[in-house]
Amino acid sequence: MHLQIIIGSVRQGRAAKPVADWAFTHAKQRDDMTVELVDLKNWPLPMFNLPKSPAAGDYEDEQQQRWAKSVERADAYLFVCPEYNHGYSAVLKNALDYVYAEWGRKPAGVVSYGGVMGARAVEQLRQVMVELQMAPIRNAVHIAGVHQKIENGAFSGDQRDADQLQRALDDLAWWGNALHWARRTSH
What we know:
The chain has 187 residues and is of the alpha/beta class. The protein has helices at residues 16-27, 62-72, 90-98, 119-131, 159-185, and strands at residues 2-7, 34-39, 76-82, 107-113, 135-136, 141-143, 150-151, 154-155. The strands form 2 sheets. Strands 1, 2, 3, 4, 5 and 6 form a 6-stranded parallel sheet that branches. The protein has a two-stranded antiparallel ribbon with strand order 7-8. Strand 3 (76-82), helix 3 (90-98) and strand 4 form a beta-alpha-beta unit. The radius of gyration is 16 Å and the shape is globular.
């Protein structure tokens, strides 16, 4: 099972990168998945410049085709996203909207922080996941006081954070394997 941890913020001084590095370090210690870190900072996907709706398929844009191949590689996703103004980031919304079929029938989880530990961002993101035919997992990682846990550019989660991440990774592994098998046998 291949997990992509997607960094859903590109702001300067973002906490998302150290948090994603922490999640990546934990995930790569597992023997039930391979893990890839995907930083949206390395994917400058222009907004509103596609000739067709991604839901129609048949991607003509080269950047869109490359993004689709990247997304398609994963069996599961873990989005690391801050809560901005009671929602998740525009860059993450754009990345989700840039392709369509490649997200489908795969589990997705969220690590979030910010206002009310990112709960509103997680809830909004889950609605979009459902529309993209993903399978949002129940267990999210809600980090309290994220900036107090970053020192010298590294995030050190407490035991509560680590326990939440472990539950989310367990769920992603289970659902990722089950849905991987289901996708392979339903064609």
